[in-house]
What does this fold into?
Amino acid sequence: MADEPFDATPFLPQRRTLDALRDAAAGCRGCDLWEPATQTVFGEGPKDATFVFVGEVPGDREDREGRPFVGPAGRELDGALVAAGIDRAETYVTNAVKHFRFEERGKRRIHQKPDAKQIKACRPWLLAELDLLRPEALVILGATAAKSLLGSSFKLMAEHGRPLDSDLAPVVVATIHPSSILRGRDGESRQAQRDILVEDLRVAAQTLAKP
It folds into this structure.
């Protein structure tokens, strides 16, 4: 694999539906992450979803269950959606990279950020999802997803929480990844991160609601 280009494009199906993409992604070998991971974790949600949320990479529980945002970060996202008044049933959730990247420490698998080559390799899956979904609002969660969709020069903390000019969707907002809440050093810092996420999601919802 090291001598081959990192690119998922050859694995995309000719017939483009969400089910076809999901089935094809299960056999993706577009980068080196497929081998240690348990399985591909593709996006999940209704094809007519109003909101699409794009995170970074599956976590340990997502890798084992094969579903995105079912672990601790997913619970934080669910809580933020409720606080922001966004119906979870109207959302599609996915990740910029579809395989779990981790480092083994004893019996634990510790999350690692995907590198630039892995992000670029997996981008065709993400763009194919967005092309089919055509959401009214796209919420980009964290720096990895932002780099995939908005470019490496995008500064998340400088630009978060405001509508962005983008062809990706009528409303595009970037915000922190819910996992950043879990990394807070204490309850106060975790709540501060939680408040940022909720407020940014409110911006997306309110912008979408404007006539």
Remarks:
- The radius of gyration is 16 Å.
- Residues 9-209 form a domain with the Uracil-DNA Glycosylase, subunit E fold (CATH 3.40.470.10).
- The chain has one domain: 9-209.
